[in-house]
Structures are given as C-alpha cells and as structure tokens.
Design a protein that fits this description.
The structure holds 2 protein chains of 2 kinds.
Chain A lengths: L2 E2 L8 E12 L2 E8 L4 E2 L8 E6 L3 E6 L10 E6 L3 H8 L5 E8 L13 E6 L7 H9 L7 E7 L8 H10 L3 E6 L2 E2 L5 E2 L4 H5 L8 E5 L2 H13 L7 E4 L15 E2 L2 E2 H4 L2 E3 H4 L9
Parallel strand pairs in A: 1-4, 9-10, 9-14, 10-11, 11-13, 14-15
Antiparallel strand pairs in A: 2-3, 2-8, 3-7, 5-6, 5-8, 15-18, 16-17
Chain B lengths: L1 H10 L9 H8 L2 E6 L4 E3 L7 E7 L1 E8 L3 E9 L3 E2 L13 E4 L3 E7 H10 L1 H27 L14
Antiparallel strand pairs in B: 1-8, 2-7, 3-6, 3-8, 4-5, 4-7
Classes of the chains: A alpha/beta, B alpha+beta.
The structure holds flavin-adenine dinucleotide and FE2/S2 (inorganic) cluster.
Chain lengths: 281, 162
C-alpha cells in the first residue's frame, strides 16, 4: 500500500524529526522524513505549506522552507510564538510529528521564466521564499536579473544569515539586507525593507515581484513597488491567515470571499489588494 | 570651474531631479566636494548644524548615543540621498551623530549660504522646502514602521505571522 501525505482527508501522517537546528533566538529549522519507508512524501512546490501536528497540543500551518526538487528530508522553519510552534521547536531528533499537505497555491515561478524578479521578504517571510531561491539557482538561465530584498528587526534576527552571504558571494543574485536598528558592530543597511527598492533600481518593464512577510510589511512593500511603476498583476503576495482544516472546509481562514488555504496563500496583488490587512471573519 | 563640476554632479543626483538649471547653478555655489573615511564622525549630536550632504557614493549612518549601550544605528543613507535637515530649522543643531560607514563622497552644502539664497529667492526656497519635506516625510514613515516592528516579533499581535 502507498499512503501519500497529500490527503484531502484530514489525517496526518507520521514523520520523524531527523535533524533540527537553531536559526535565530526563537526560530528553528527541522528536517522531517516519513516514519515508514513506504510513505510517499509529496515535496510540494515553493510557497505551499504543510499542516504540522505536535501530538497532544495541536496543528499549525508551516511553509515548506527547504528545496522542493530532489530528494532528502522536508525542511520547515518555525518561529516559536505559541503553544503549537513552541512545542514543535522544542522537539528532539527522533521524535514524531504528524504532517498533512502540501496545501495551497504555490508561487507562480514557472510562468515567470524570462522575467527579472524581485523577491522581497520580511522576518520569517523569507522561509516560504527560500524554495523559490533554490529553484532559481538550480535553473538560473531561466530568469533575468534576480534581486532578493530582505528586512529583519535586528541583525541577530536575520534568518538564514550564512546562506544569504553565500548567495551574495555567488553573484547570481543581488542580495540586499536591512535591519530596523543595530548597534555599531553592524555595518549593513539600517532602515525599512521598502527603502531597499530605491537602493536597487530595476527595469519595471517585465519585472515581477514576490513578497512575503507580515501583512503590514507586504502592504507597504507592495505600495512601494507600485510607486516604482510596477503593475498590480506583476506582484504576488502570500497571505497567511489562521488555519484549521487547510482544505477549504471550516472557513477559519476566510478573508473576504477568499478561503486562503484553498485559493491562496499566494495571490496576485490585483486579486487581494483590498483584502490585505482585513481581519479574519 | 569647481562650481561647474558640482553643478554637473548635482544634475545626476536624485534629490535635485527636475530642478531648473539656473537654480542648480545657484545652489551649486554653496556646495563643495568632500570625502569621508570609513568610521569618520561627520557630525556630532548637539553641535551646530550648518551643512547637509548630498551623497554621491558610499554610505553613512545616523546614530544616537545611548550612555548604557553606546552608539545605536537608526538609519543608513546611501548614494543619491541626502542627510541632514537640522540646518533648515532653528536652533540649527544636530539631533543625531552622522558617521561614514564606507569611503563616502558627497557634496557638502553650507547651510548659511543656502538659507540666504532661499530667503532671497522664495521660489527657490519653496522648491527646496518641498524636496526636503518629501525626504522628511519618507523618513518619518520609515521611522514609524521601524517603531511598530513590521516583521512581527510581538506574540500578542493578532496579525502577527510567518
Ligand atoms: C499558509 C501559512 C504558512 C505559514 N508558514 C509559517 C512558517 O513557515 N513558519 C512559521 O513559524 N509560521 C508560519 N505560519 C504561522 C503559523 O501557522 C502560526 O504562527 C502558528 O499556527 C501559531 O500557532 P501556535 O499554536 O504556536 O500559536 P497560537 O498560540 O495559536 O498563537 C500565537 C500567536 O500567533 C498568532 N497566530 C496564530 N496562528 C497564526 C497564523 N496562522 N498566522 C499568523 N499568526 C498566527 C496568534 O494570533 C498569536 O499572536 C504560517 C501560517 C500560514 C497560514
Ligand atoms: S483553513 Fe479551513 S477553510 Fe481554510
């Protein structure tokens, strides 16, 4: 028998935590593998998420943050902010989590071939965009100029810091990072992520932008890109609303007419511009 | 000769974008080329603010000195931007330190000279005010976003997300 995790049923499948490492003070990444060899993992696509179950506590929607191509464990990056995420982050190698998914609409990378890309992330919003970067680096010739603009609260909150400097060193993409505040040991940029758009002049024609972070960050980032001359249909954002079922049944994630788990989380800005920063119904 | 060079330099600087040629020539007369070494203190909080910089290359930091924690960097300003508007308003005192983070080339404008030209020519003065107001508004908006933490570290924010 082959059991896949992509169950439209709501049944989680057991995954073993193979490895776990700390990214920042409150954020960990974890590598998960199916508990049984006959379980087929669906690796998903960049921008999709899985529901991770900490047994005895509950479930959370967590984006895929590792590569979606190739083999190897599934990687998720989790910020400990409440009961479920704290429990997940406290787990040790060898322990079992429940996983169902992948769910949701991915970033439309296939349709962006040939275009210049602006990848704009804030805080842990870099996690759902990292698979996009992996995809681009694996298929570099498919895309034009690629710029990654990333903002974090403080230098110590920068996610995937080593990887970011590695990407910068490869010269295959422009990597610009900024923080809100820093002491004098930080020689990078200080200011909001929106200011990096001005620091990184780009050809508006044909460019596309993928934006992920807290909604207030996405609102201001999208506005800055529009002010720079981009059109709404060239900007995609990932809306993250509280989720329960993940499959369009419970209505928990509803915002306006959208069930974010089904029709999102990734949307073209033109579709949800008026819903950004609307509270759940 | 130096004025000509500065006038040309200003012509390609974002802050002066669209400024009339005769106004550019006028303000260029108050500017001089400067170079700051990495780490150099350009302006000190509390001292007389009698200039501003139009940065051409490099990067400077706006810092505040907090006795218990040392210098905190509030903002960095890079090429094609300006730094310093205390020269425009009484009591003409720097509110923050300005420090070069890299080798920085800039046009440094004498505040007295510019104020005089703006007073003498209110149309130029208004144009200048509008340009600085736009910069100030952008910085104010950025400062507000920096205060509220748009990257969502607060556990009690209902829209706080990953
Ligand atoms: C599509 C999607 C992808 C996500 N990807 C990631 C990811 O890759 N990494 C990650 O760390 N988090 C991600 N999240 C957010 C994560 O699901 C929530 O932080 C988590 O469910 C909170 O559960 P909890 O029990 O730990 O916290 P709770 O005790 O339920 O809440 C703690 C705090 O988090 C807020 N919160 C709860 N659920 C959500 C939610 N769904 N979105 C935003 N804020 C929430 C609460 O309002 C509260 O302020 C994602 C959310 C969605 C919808
Ligand atoms: S989470 Fe249940 S409908 Fe979207």
């Amino acid at each position: 028998m082959t059991l896949t995790t992509k169950a439209e049923t709501l049944r989680p499948v057991p995954y073993v935590l193979r490895d776990k490492w700390q990214e920042t003070a409150d954020t960990w990444s974890m590598a998960l593998e199916p508990a049984e060899a006959w379980l087929q993992a669906d690796r998903g696509e960049p921008g999709q998420f899985n529901m991770l179950w900490a047994f005895g506590v509950g479930e959370s929607a967590i984006s895929i943050s590792g590569p979606t191509h190739g083999t190897g464990p599934l990687v998720h990056t989790i910020r400990a902010c409440g009961n479920v995420t704290r429990k997940l982050c406290a787990m040790k190698a060898g322990e079992v989590v429940g996983l169902r998914g992948p769910y949701g609409k991915p970033w439309p990378i296939e349709s962006l071939k040939g275009r210049d890309l602006i990848i704009m992330a804030g805080g842990i919003g870099l996690a759902p965009l990292r698979p996009v970067v992996y995809h681009i680096l694996a298929n570099r010739e498919d895309f034009g100029r690629v710029s990654l603009l990333y903002g974090a609260r403080r230098p110590e909150d920068i996610l995937f810091a080593n990887e970011l400097s590695g990407w910068r060193g490869r010269m295959e993409l422009d990597v610009l990072i900024t923080v809100d505040a820093a002491d004098s040991s930080w020689f990078g940029n200080v200011g909001t992520v929106t200011r990096l758009v001005r620091r990184n002049p780009f050809e508006v024609d044909g460019a596309a932008a993928l934006v992920c972070g807290p909604e207030i960050m996405m609102q201001y980032s999208a506005q800055t890109l529009l002010d720079a001359g981009m059109n709404q249909d060239s900007i995609w954002v990932s809306m993250e609303r509280n989720m329960k079922c993940g499959v369009g049944l419970c209505g928990h994630c509803q915002v306006g007419p959208e069930f974010v788990c089904k029709t999102g989380p990734v949307y073209p800005l033109e579709r949800i511009a008026n819903l950004l920063a609307t509270r759940e119904m | 000769m130096e004025d000509m060079t500065i006038e040309k330099l200003l012509g390609s600087h974002d802050f002066f974008d669209g400024m009339k040629a005769e106004d550019l020539a006028l303000v260029a007369g108050c500017g001089s080329n400067v170079v700051y070494q990495p780490g150099e203190l350009i302006a000190r909080q509390g001292t007389a603010a009698d200039f501003f910089l139009a940065i051409r290359h490099g990067r400077v930091a706006v810092e505040i000195y907090v006795p218990s924690s040392g210098a905190l960097r509030l903002e960095t300003v890079s090429e094609n931007s300006v730094v310093g508007w205390s020269w425009l308003f009484e009591p003409y005192r720097w509110h923050f330190d300005i420090r070069a983070l890299e080798l920085t080339r800039a046009v440094r404008f004498d505040g007295h000279c510019l104020r005089k030209k703006c007073d003498d020519d209110p149309v130029l003065g208004y144009d200048f005010m509008k340009r600085f107001a736009a910069v100030a508004a952008r910085r104010l908006e950025a400062a507000r976003l920096q205060i509220i933490d748009i990257y969502g570290k607060k556990d009690d924010d209902p829209d706080n997300q990953g």
